Amino acid sequence: MDEKKMEYARQLEREMNWVEAADQYVQLLSEDSSSSLYERAAWCLSRAGKYSDSIKYLEKLHEIEPLSAKWPYMIGYQYYCQKDWNKSIEWFEKSLERYQDYFVVKYRLAYAYIQIAGKYKKLTKAEYWKALGHLKDCHRLWKTFDENKKQRERGVYSDINFLHGKILMELPNHRDEAINCFLKALEINPTNEFTKYNLAKTYYLDGDFKKAKENIPTSTQYYVVELSAYTDAKLGDYPSAISAITKLLNRRKKDYLFSFLASTYLLSDNLEKAYKMAQKAVSIGQNNHKNYYILSKVFYQYGLLNKAIENLDKAIKIKKTKYETAYKECDELREIILSKMSPDYHDDYI
Fold this sequence. Notes:
By secondary structure, the chain is mainly alpha-helical. The protein is built from 19 helices and no strands. It starts with a helix and ends in an 11-residue tail after the last helix.
């Protein structure tokens, strides 16, 4: 092997010049087909984002060492980076067949399964429960690690706790567990803004708005600004909530933000602005059932009961069409309104 070429390849790798480093390692393979060169070439190609090329060299390593769990994992990871979840799962499973307690593989596998489960009716998906099973295995394995191994794997364990918290936070009966997961992740990585945000969001979903406010990170990211405004509204600080969302609308004109403003103006007894915001929400998001529900509430406050019913019916129809489910809030408000309408009732627009 040409030692000068080898040192040059290593230097390029140290400089994170991944493409040229990979080219050098591939050239060296023509002189010496050692496993280490295949690995370096695959690694550099992966870092360069050339995942398909990386797979070719990793498959060669898998042929050379068929009993190794590392190469199926690395092949799966290339598909994982390309968001080809099914192929990544196929290879991760092969890796676990060779080493069933492969910590990082269980985490990656759980993440891939969650992506396949999606957000809609995820509790009915087998992939959701498989993901939870692998995450529970990760916690079990963590307890068996000595301090040295925990130190090496702490970054992965932070990611595991974050993912576990994300999975559980939408489930009302598991939010305490989700909060504990986020807190564990923050013990390892206390400055992670996204973990702080999700911890605050979990407190918000659980109805602990003071805790949510305490944990919201300082950030101009739109989702953080939105959560902060939603929390302010729940705490009765309507001016702060309205101000934050009004500013956000300058760079992010979304129907749900206008809808939020409409509901907040309703809470602060500003019916005229509530009406304007609700109309704006509907004009931007004509297929969003929530916009018609807010508009119906505005009409109800105005005393225009037929218009309120008309918009409730639109909301109910849209949700039924899109999600094949009833709209409980609309049904309840509809019953209240109908109970107040006499046989000869008509809206007084004047």
